[in-house]
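Field: COMPLEX_INPUT
Field: COMPONENT_COUNT = two
Field: RESIDUE_TOTAL = 1076
Field: MODE = joint
Values follow.
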Amino acid sequence: MPDLLLELFSEEIPARMQRKAADDLRKLVTDALVERGLVYEGAKAFATPRRLALHIAGLPVRGSAIREERKGPRVGAPDAAVQGFLKAAGLASLDQATIVSDPKKGDSYIAVIEKPGQETVAAIAEIVPAVIRSFPWPKSMRWGQASAAGASLRWVRPLHSILCTFGAETEEPEVVSFEVDGIVSGNTTHGHRFHAPGAITVRRFDDYVASLEQAKVVLDADRRKEIILADARTLAFAQGLELVEDEGLLEEVAGLVEWPVVLMGAFEERFLEIPGETIRATIRANQKCFVLRDPATGNLANRFLLTSNLMASDGGAAIVAGNERVVRARLSDAAYFFATDKGNLPDLDTLKDSAAKLGLDLAKPLDQRMAKLDRLGVVFHAKLGTQGERVQRIAALARELAPIVGADPDLAERAAKLAKADLPTEMVGEFPELQGLMGRKYAELQGEHPSVCAAIEEHYKPLGPSDRVPTDPVSVAVALADKLDTLVGFWAIDEKPTGSKDPYALRRAALGVIRLVVENGVKLRLTAPVARQFGRVTSAGRFAELSDVAANAVPLRDFIGGELAEAFDQHLASQYSPDAARNIIKQTRTAVLAAYRDLRSFLHDRLKVMLRDQGARHDLVDAVLGEGTPASEDLLLITRRVAALGRFLETEDGKSLLAGYKRAANILRAEEKKDGEGAFAGAADLGLIAQAGLIEEKGLAVALAQATPKAESAVAAEDYEGAMAALADLRPAVDAFFDKVTVNDPDPALRANRLRLLNQLRAATRAVADFGRIAG
Amino acid sequence: MDPTRSFQGLLLTLQRFWAERGCVVLQPYDMEVGAGTSHPGTMLRSLGPKPWKAAYVQPSRRPKDGRYGENPNRLQHYYQFQVILKPNPPNLQELYLDSLKAIGIDVLLHDIRFVEDDWENPTLGAWGLGWECWCDGMEVSQFTYFQQVAGIECAPVSGELTYGLERLACYLQNVESIMELNFNGLEGDEKVTYRDVFLQAEQEYSRYNFEHADTAALFTRFAEAETECRALLAKGESGERHLMVQPAYDQCLKAGHSFNLLDARGVISVTERQSYILRVRELAKACGAAWLKTAGGGAN
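Field: COMPLEX_OUTPUT
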């Protein structure tokens, strides 16, 4: 069976795009082939900095024939209809059509059109240009003379040539001919830019790979990675060192070379005084080099490994020397930044106000930086005030949350106040990815409490679904405060994520809150702290009035207290009449209550996504959060309730009770349609049951009277297993009831009473979950 | 003039190289600009259908980068060598590599790489795709295919090469600090270094940029330049044509430089910063649109 070889040869493709581009190429071409009935044995795509290549093995020479039937008019139809049919079906006369009989509609014409299978070469010549023209590059460009016209070809960088051959092993493959914006397909390519720039003629995949290899191009990115990794380890080992492995960097470096040559360079030992992470970040980000460590101490060594794209004529001496120069310059910068950050800032006098406001000690360098951040008035978001204001809010919230998570409030507040202090440091200015980490280093240098140091680094965590969740209570308090402040802030100004747009990473913040709470087992009712944070966000300099939305309308001023509350009163009194002031308070309350509810349901949605990803049943989450179930301010309890409900429904009692519930709910729904919503509310008349009811009816009434308070008090005590067990006790009575009792008794009083019983059953289950939302 | 022995030798070699490949060799624009791209020879000429090839040195002012002459790699005034080819020829990468050979870089001895770098100049409303060109791990040039300039799609696309001359010269002369560069290629008493030419200027301008520039005057100058730019653009309108784009564009550059100085003085907050950038960009866009209504911009 013949093979297809395709290569798209261009100027340097960004390393980060290569792997996905190869995958896309394979998928788009093979999907289009299969759509035309051309199946294949195997397909593999490759990428180097200058080419995307695709090999498809075992394609047929032509696709299978396609038989198509086209219905025509009835026999004896007007000539116009007949002519239209002949034209559409491509027939010369009605002799070529078949007549079919239908007992109802009578005889009519039908055309049978047999299309021979398309030649595979022809199919490829149609498919490949279409794939090239609509290739899904994350960013693409126009170039050259062709770009003067409107719709010229777009590619990631200028596309120079296309190689496309098709044929069996035993024969000379043919070039699949096509043209894309002036680029004519052929059977030639080029090797390494410097080692083998000449044209190479290619037949099929096997000689293609071999010719490239000879021309100093390793086609397969995974092989280039293996070579780099193996050579790097060998070079490190020879010096008694260990490679600090870095998969992301390896992937990137493999996308920057066609012929990897690993070389070792060195830098002055004095630079090892700089924190290792900084050295690594500098060398990694700017030079794309690996660092090495001493296996005995675990400390970084004054060596690095670079991956060049050249077998240099001097064995790489000039390349190493050049890279060392750059690394030295970069490390000199880093050393300067580090020394500067550890020292005092000039003009400390100008920072006094900020220090006083934030309770900072200007004798300490990191405190000075926080004061500077405040003094500079760096805006966090135009509507949410400055970084300084934000830090004050986070510190206040962290202090409140501390007792709940088991942290020392003073430490939590201190950590929050220093958490953003590294933002104005030179080091973080240069390497933003070191934020948090540098703060920790500088905090350690000025002798902060270990938990404070840890929290400064960890308060950004978790950064995603797989990132580690901090466990030190101080870190948990600050991390929660940071994320809740962000969420509350953007909800207060109504800048919520929409569709795929989430510029402030609010989904990540919400997931962070959930994971911090759930994985640390933090019992936190969100209402009060979130309400207070709404207060802080909207009151900072804006004097809006709020209330605790859950508790009984306690005015915001009681939360914010002190100066702000006084200022607030004065402001209202000076600006508005008492009526107007009251009105402002009312409006703000309404707005904040709506925002709070919306934020809560956003958190619930993220929780649903998380639980579903972990394999929990989606419907159980809905059932637990369903209407009429106990309000869910506590994320930890929601997850526990979902887990308990899942376990309960796996038992026989659970399944049976669910079946009973569904039956009751169905009957009620039907009867409520007749009698109206709420017609069966209220308790069943026990007297009537005693007088005229059946024994099973009484049994259910008694069981409900016992189980309902039991389940409710268990839920109140957060004992979900107990609540489930109480519901399980209902099962025999429910089963017996449905077995023996006819709900729709001819006696209207008995009927209504029985429906009331079912309504009580429905209500009893609601104490635990909305069973109506459970599937099955 | 050996490009590996003197700063001016490097500059002259690049000029000769590109002159021989058909470029108009322009002189630096006579105004303060932050980069060679701002020169009308790139900024305006890259718009419209007319072919254009030019090369020039452009002194570039970045007030914020001043370090009083104390940092070996950072200056508030430095030179860029700029090449602009419209449309970009298909072999632009090869031409660029030839230019490296011309200045003494052996491509079989040194590791030359094209590393992704998407270029953007927000104040000019310009962006393009291309690379940083690395020589042994050091960025020696920027290579960009302009996609948009002044908010207008480039048709055709220009190729832009920007050589960071000081850094390249440090590499070729094998010195660690820009100030140590041999400027004139002579030795002994005759030798003139970069320090001799520019150290005093770096110190004086750093003082000015960071400490003494009159911020009130700069705010006024910014506003005046903005007003005049708009006025000139309005006065130059003449039906289908525009008669005064370049004087208007000069005012846009003046506004840009005032903004850079204010930024260095630290008197522009983060939020204000964005709005100033936008104001300059609006001027640049208006100038670009007007340029298309001139002969240079291809209007008939």
